[in-house]
Amino acid sequence: MLEKTELEKVAKIFREKNSFAIFGHRGPDLDCVGSQLSMAIFLESIGKKVYVVNYDTPSENFRFLSGLEKFSKIPPAISNVEAVIVVDTNPQLTGFFESHSFLLKNFYPIIEIDHHQKKLSESSVHIHTTEISSTSEIIFYMLENMNFEIDKKIANLLLAGIYGDTSGFLNANVFESTFYSVSKLLEKGAEISSVMENVLNHITEEEISVWSLALSRLRVNEKSKIAHTFLTHSDIEKYKKAGETLSGLSNFLNTIQEADISLVLSEKEEGTIKGSFRSRSNVDVNKLAKLFSPTGGGHIRAAGFSLPGKFVNSGGIWKIQKI
Ligand SMILES: [Mn+2]
User: Fold this and answer.
1) How remote is the CA of residue 160 from the centroid of ligand 1, in Å?
2) Are residues 14 and 117 in the same domain?
3) Among 199, 217, 246, where does a domain finish?
4) Which domain holds residue 255?
5) How confident is the model over 80-94, as pLDDT tens digits?
6) Residues 236 and 266: beta-carbon distance below 8 Å
7) What is the pTM of this model?
8) Distance from the CA of 141 to the center of ligand 1, in angstroms?
């Protein structure tokens, strides 16, 4: 599943380097947070200095996880780091690629741990496969391979990541191995009921309001079998927490019987429209997302893209205006 030579390279970097900056993607989800923090706790436990960096602050809903206080929005000074780890994404999507390219471009060893389709050639080491549910599950195998004794804290973080990325073991990135890793994490003391409770039972009135607005605009195209809806920048400004709930919305729309694909368009940042695809047919939305933008992609059944543009209403009809 994971390449032995790559795992050996990582183990060597972990032995030889003393300080690490761990990056993840913007708008960190449970898998990203679980991966960043479990790597941090692991490295600290073997005596390393660690900086956990994310462009965006993790959701309040994740406060049940240990170690959230480690997150910083500011990357460490170049002189303080000896290696970089990028989890659950590639360096371009961390939000720091342009402003801190020195951190991410061959200056240090870069370890990329990810389960998305694309890998970045500049990284020194790729721990990468799309045949595993989540980055958190990949980290489980990495730690198992290094004979590291996973404690309850790390077990909970990894389980939360796996649970989050599989939408509670409901989507297409659940494999036989997923249940193997989950059973091992439960053995290490992970509390599945607490993860389930905290992940599922956390919808706020504001989130319901934004869902209801999106559902009121839902259309199903009979020909393309795409169920689609959108949220404008002012909707998202009105419901500040909207961003966090949108992946749940895409998953929910993907349960519509009459559709094969769901698409949620949202203008989180003014002038940028993000699209979030889900598919439950044979349509490869990873390819579809790439048609919309060069940075688009993700998985075969869940992928996204972003485009310059904004929503405008002319004569009662919403359109996307190119910028
Ligand atoms: Mn993930």
Assistant:
1) 11
2) yes
3) 199
4) 205-322
5) 999 999 999 888 888
6) yes
7) 0.81
8) 15
